Amino acid sequence: MSAGGRPSKRPKFIHHIHSETVGQASTRHRNFSLQASGNFNLRTSYLSASRPAIEEEEQALSQQAVGVDSDPWNETEFYQAVEDSQSHSDGPSQAGHGRTPGDDPLALWLHEREIYLDELICLEGRGKSASEQCSMPFHRIEEWKDGFFHAVTLKSLGLRIQLGHKAGEACRRPSPAFDDDFVVIDTHGIHEVSLDFCGCEHKASHYKQLLRARLFPATATDPRTAATFAVLKFFHLLSFESKVSTYEFYHSLARQSDNTGITPIRDRYSTFLRIVREWRNLRSLKRAGRGHDPACVNATKEGELALLCPACPHPGKNLPDRWEASTQQWMYSVFLAIDANFRLKRQAISSDTKDPGLSGGWGYFVNEKHYKAYIGNNSAVIQECQQRSACVNHNAVNMADVKISKGLAATGVGTVDCARHDMKLANGVGDLQKGERYVNMDYLVFSALSTFSSLKVINFSYDIACQWHKKLWGHVPSLPLHLQPDPVGKTFRYFVPKFHIAAHVEACQTMFSLNWSPGVGRTDGEAPERGWANINRVATSTKEMGPGARRDTLDDHFGNWNWKKIASLGRVLLRKVIEAVRAEQEHHIALSELEDSIRESELGASSLQKWREEIESWEVDHTKPNPFERRVDTMTQAAVRLELAKQDTKELEDGTAVSLHSEVSCSILISTGIDLEHAQRRLRADAGLLGQHPTDTQRTSILTCSNTLLRRIDAWTTIQTLYMPSVANLRANHQEKTEVLHSAI
Fold first, then answer.
1. What residue ranges in 40-125 does DSSP mark as E strands?
2. How far apart are CA 110 and CA 282, in angstroms?
3. CB under 8 Å to 570, separation ≥6 — which residues?
4. Which residues are within 8 A (CB) of 123 and not within 5 positions of it... i.e. 6 or more apart?
5. 399 and 440 belong to one structural domain
6. How many structural domains comprise the chain?
7. Under the phi-then-psi rule, with left for phi > 0, alpha for psi from -120 to 50, and beta for the rest, what region is 280?
8. Is residue 690, in this structure, part of any structural domain at all?
9. Range of the structural domain that residue 534 is part of
10. What is the model's pTM?
């Protein structure tokens, strides 16, 4: 606990000190309710409650000072060994099963995950639990005292929350929470409440009673903390939109409870972390329909929790019958965009053994165990084949093994997206151990492709596709059998995204361009880049997580990204269709006018027919000459300068150079004149950017540049007269005409 009662990021465990003897003890039970007439009803009774048995050694530990370090993830750790009568079933517990300090609450929760999911689904309908929740038990009230209002809790006024019964219905055998100490995290703040579990004959386990009251228990055994469904839903959506961290959100709740720091706030940050993680997992399971599968949650297949792109081709779902026999297979092709993100790092914290995650490979991340096994077995062999880039100096290729990884367990993530609709694909995300190595990207690509294994046309968009595709099929035999595609009767095409292709050599710009290939529409291939802007905002919080927690969190954010895309897909596609129809009409008119102008001559008509035949032939067979490759060397200004410099060099070497100026040759005069024209245009543009009220500094800069340019022009015209004597007469005549015109005005 930090100064002022504010929760710390890594809280200390608070031991509960017991002064009473072990055995029977009287407990005051008070029911506090508000009647329809507005009057308060208070009923007090004294019940016998048995205390948990504590061994002598553990009892001595409990008498030590508050604040002893403990496992911050284990909020139910109170150093006792009692038989757990509520953890696994509603009936009698199995003898010999005890709660020990070494138990992991998250691991214990996994055994009860199926029941948690059933209870959540029950609450979505008209289950019996709908009427078992208390009405407004977490309101904050104030009491007039000593001349001003004091904040008081409903617990101090005697309110007790009774679970397992309808509101206002008394329980014959109420069982208070351990030490009558229970903390509830709600949207209004962090509350300490008095809570009674139902101890009747047909009672449900404690965590079930909490779930049915829409309170998410921190543990499945003897919970002492819960979060309301309302605060979990609110944080879930808020984390998607604002990317707020759990730490920031919890401390906001703490300040909402007491913003002065005077009243100590119960520190349940670590507990809330675990609750949020379990909540994310249960929501994804529920939305994927896993709660209705008789085979239970553990029968979930890899990638089954991922939201599929509804506009991509999925055989058996959105394709017509006998689509395989269609001659227009481009209509049923899939576009995969490949990229890596080095912002989503993870520090070398924890391990997969300690934090394996709650959904191994069920979502967007690949199964970590299989993924790392493949990398470990094939990394050295495949990296030997990773040659330096023959295109430009691609860092993704040349520096794949030199990425700084000191202190990092993951330098980033590699992903495979739907290039047409900007959605993450199932099992298309994985951690990178160094740089963007082929061994990592190959596994991710074919893992994502396994969903579309029956399609006949596959399009890959990758910023280094010109290098990556060369030895790709030599790596395929090393992949697991279920990831190896059958290339028979299929077409695989490789493209470079439109924004990246300008950095490639000219040959790549024609061979791998999306603009020159049929059946791709206006796909730009830059889908992953748009997604990074959204997910990079969580990099600060996820880099300090354990491996499993980080994958679960990123999986959830990727799922939200896909859901938002799906929800807006109808509106977006309609807008694109309207734009495409209008653009097609405009381009059709422009193309017709161009072709008509070419056909005006016989040579143009024959050339047009020849070009069309070459393009159609190349589109069918890429081994034919590429009609988009440049066949005539174009003359650029830089090339002209180079030729003039070479000519001067040759004349100087041969001794035939004739120069009328000691420093400026004819070629230099021409080059300098071109530079002066550029300087004039640049000055005109800069002057046009001045506003109506330019500052003195701006005006001084423009005048200085103008004066310098005038001096350069005067010096250049003096030398120009040596090489072009007639220019002096032309300039004089122009000056006379200008003076006459001014005098006439």
1. 40-50
2. 11
3. none
4. 129, 130, 211, 212, 214, 229
5. yes
6. 3
7. alpha
8. yes
9. 323-553
10. 0.74
